[in-house]
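Reviewers of the previous submission asked for a worked example of the structure-prediction workflow described in the proposal, so we include one complete record here. The input consisted solely of the amino acid sequence. No template or homolog information was supplied to the procedure at any stage.
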Amino acid sequence: MTALGMAPAAPEADVSQEFRHMMKMWPTGVSVVTTLVDGARHGFTASSFTSVSMRPPMISVCLDRSARCVPAFAEADWISVNVLGSHQDGLARRFASKLDDKYSGLTVVEGAGGAPVFPDSLGVVECRLDRVIAAGDHLILLANVHRAARLGASEPLAYYRSAFADVSPRDQVR
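From that input alone, the workflow returned the following structure tokens.
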């Protein structure tokens, strides 16, 4: 055992599995990232969305290299990050699926550069894509924020222990 009470480091092959188990303990927000390329709408569910800089305002979001929408996002000019509310787990599942037409029957409005926005989301961050960076089995989309808006008033949708979770505020922790 180490000074922290942890087992000695696992062989490299086991590190990925241990890392995956550890990351399940880290709750994240859930978003649907969208774009419009050559008149076609594309999107994917992401829990790896974060701010990178406030001056200038920038965000990053990670996209699995095996996703069918990789070619569209690799050539996109604009993206919208739709921050999901607790009532939108169905939307998150839809955009995490392999459905051919993920937008069928959904209400969307055109955002900056045409990237679709879901008006009943908790909020949206509309961005111009700055660059795409290869990183392991994912691509990092780095983007400049053009507009950010709160749209809804529900609680956020979270992902924790491989399941969607509702985040309800407690008394403030001091």
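Residues 12-23 form the longest helix (12 residues). We consider this example representative of the routine output the project will generate in years two and three.
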